[in-house]
Amino acid sequence: MALAHDLTQIVPGQFKGRLFTKGHIIQEEDIAVLLSIGKEHVYVLSLEPGEVHEDDAARRMAHALVHESLTFTEPHEGKITVKAAHDGLLVIDVQALQKINEIGELVVVTKRTHIPVKAGATLAGLRAIPLVIHEEKLAEYDRVLASTQSLIRVVPFKPMKVGVVTTGSEVFKGRITDRFGPVLREKFDAYTSVQFMGQQIVDDQTASIIDAIQSFMAKGADLILVTGGMSVDPDDRSPGAIAQVATNVVSYGMPILPGSMSMLAYCGDVILLGLPGAVIYDAVTAFDLLLPLILAGQRLTRADIAAFGHGGLL
Ligand SMILES: Nc1nc2c(c(=O)[nH]1)N[C@H]1C(S)=C(S)[C@@H](COP(=O)(O)OP(=O)(O)OC[C@H]3O[C@@H](n4cnc5c(N)ncnc54)[C@H](O)[C@@H]3O)O[C@H]1N2
Ligand code: MOO
């Protein structure tokens, strides 16, 4: 007799996985093993018209999600795992995902949207909940997917030339050692698409900051970071300097903590990002949320920044 579905064994701390695979023909020596995982009965499955086995349901769900940035495993215990085909920014259509999970009897579970992911990283799992699911549920699933361009995708990072302007008389005059350079270099190292152009350390003069920004622009920078001098002292000149160079200030101040004194602006297509002192102190700040989106080529709006408030307390 053939098994109608994968059979799972769980030994806490040691193993969780398939002990028998769907379709396995039960042998006499299997009986003791089946009893050891609590299977005193083995069921015969006969599908009615319109009913779909969990493995086929998962395959159909995966098929509808196919995208060049994704790979899919075979069903294991009814579940298919979705992985990243390459590095990039994970982008989920959260509204469509909500609708899918309201259908019932099937689930799509993802990592949070807008996080950086590496090739091979697990992004999502999908499955039917009962062993047999009605065709109508899958039709509803297909209808939701027809309303979105892609439910799950990975947007590759764009090659970007990045320059750093560091302000602060204490650093410029050598009273303290610069920490922004090493911290930012380490963060850039996680992205092979970043070409680091260099760092200019300047005093707290608006004109010096503007000169440094413009010299990076003249050399073809895509992204210019201005560090320090972002808060409330009269000699905090970075926001003013960025605003003078910019053609569009998206936001000075962001609903993200730490990093609330960050600033995002554009001069044409060049991205100008003001980074406050917290970035050299806290392991995770506004910068870590913004960088992957910027590197994936997303042009951020005020609404995008405002949306960080939910979950922005890091
Ligand atoms: N009264 C208020 N105080 C502060 C506010 C505020 O709104 N009202 N905001 C706070 C927030 S939030 C942050 S973050 C910090 C830092 O803001 P800044 O970006 O203006 O930082 P600085 O004043 O330039 O420096 C602060 C601190 O960090 C050291 N620093 C700066 N750059 C470097 C560098 N390249 N290498 C090493 N160390 C650096 C600097 O010497 C200071 O010690 O402001 C809060 N305060
Ligand atoms: O701007 Mo501060 O970076 O919120 O801690």
TrEMBL record:
Gene Ontology molecular function, alphabetical: metal ion binding; molybdopterin molybdotransferase activity
One record GO biological process: Mo-molybdopterin cofactor biosynthetic process
Any one GO cellular component localisation term in the record: cytosol
Annotated keywords: Magnesium, Metal-binding, Molybdenum, Molybdenum cofactor biosynthesis, Transferase
The protein's Enzyme Commission number: 2.10.1.1
Pfam families per UniProt: MoCF_biosynth
Cofactor: Mg(2+)
Pathway: Cofactor biosynthesis; molybdopterin biosynthesis
EC main group: transferase
Keyword Ribonucleoprotein belongs to the record: no
CDD domains named in the record: MoeA_like
Recorded catalytic activity of this chain's protein: adenylyl-molybdopterin + molybdate = Mo-molybdopterin + AMP + H(+)
All copies of domain MoaB/Mog, residue ranges: 163-296
Top-level taxon of origin: Bacteria
Record family assignment: Belongs to the MoeA family.
Role this protein plays: Catalyzes the insertion of molybdate into adenylated molybdopterin with the concomitant release of AMP.
PANTHER family to which the protein is assigned, alphabetical: MOLYBDOPTERIN BIOSYNTHESIS PROTEIN, MOLYBDOPTERIN MOLYBDENUMTRANSFERASE
Protein known as: Molybdopterin molybdenumtransferase
